[in-house]
What we know:
Elements: H1 2-10, E1 14-18, H2 43-46, H3 49-54, H4 56-71, H5 77-84, E2 90-95, H6 101-105, E3 110-112, E4 115-122, E5 128-130, H7 135-139, E6 152-156, H8 165-177, E7 180-184, H9 196-202, E8 206-211, H10 216-220, E9 224-227, H11 230-240
Helix pairs in contact: 5-11, 8-9
Bound molecules: adenosine-5-diphosphoribose.
Adenosine-5-diphosphoribose is lined by residues 19-21, 24-25, 30-33, 36, 96, 114, 185-187, 190, 210-213, 215, 229-231.
Amino acid sequence: MDEIIEEIRDAERITAFTGAGMSVESGIAPFRGEDGLWNKFDPQEVASASAFVETPERSWKLFKLQIEECLESDPHKGHYSLVELEDHGLNSVITQNVDGLHQRAGNNEVLELHGSLKRLVCQSCRHSFMVEEFLDDIKEGHIPRCECDEILKPDVVLFGEGLPHDILQRAWKEAENCDLLFSLGTSAVVQPAASIPAAAKKSEAKIVEINLERTPLTHDVSDYFLKGKVGEKLPEIIDRL
Ligand code: APR
C-alpha cells in the first residue's frame, strides 16, 4: 500500500478503468462468478444483437431486472473515493458499467464504453428517450415502444455490437496518456475493453489492480494487485493520501 500511495503522489495523470465489481457493493449483480447474471441468463439468448431482434421479450426480462436494480442502488464509498481522487490527479473514469453510478457520485469525466441503461433508443427511427419516461411500463413487465410503434432498446452495447466509436477512441487516448491506471472490479475478459489496461501499460503507466480475485491482468499487466473490495480499499487509499 505504501508503494501505491507513492505512485499516486508521483503521478500527474491518473485514469480509472472499472467493471461490474465496482457496483456490487451498491447492490448491482456482476455478470460472472457465483452471483453473476450469466448464471441466471444465457448471454447469447438475451444479450446479443441477434437475440434482441429475434426474441426482444426475452432480452427485456434482463433489461427490466438491470433497470430496477439501478433504480434501487446508490453510489458507495468506493465511488466517492474516485471523486476525491480527482484532487490527486484522476482525469477520467473509463467504465464498462451501464448504471450511471460514477456520474451520480460526481465524477466529471466518465467514458461509458458499454453505453447506459439511462437511455432507450428506437431501433427504427433512432429516437432516444430517458428511461424514466417508461418506468411504469417497464415495472409492469410491458416492453416499451417508440411513437413509431417500434420496440425500444436500452442504449447498451450487446454482444455482437460495436462499441461507440468516439468514446472508445477517447478511452484509448486516456489510457495512452495516463501515468497511472487503476483497474477496479473487472474480470478483464471482454474485448476490446479488457485491453485498456494493457494499452496504458504499453505507454509505461503503472497499473494498480483492485479485485476480489486474480484476473488475466494480475500476472502480465498489473504492477500492484490489492485483493479485496473496492468499497474498502479505495477509501483506505484516499485516507492515506
Ligand atoms: N470489489 C472488487 N472486485 C469485485 C467486487 C468488489 N466488491 N465484487 C466482485 N468483484 C470482481 C469479481 O471477482 C470479478 O472478477 O469483479 C469482477 C466482475 O467481473 P464481471 O462480472 O465479469 O464484470 P465485468 O468485468 O465488468 O464484465 C465485462 O462483460 O457481460 C459483459 O457487458 C458486460 O460490461 C460487462 C463485461
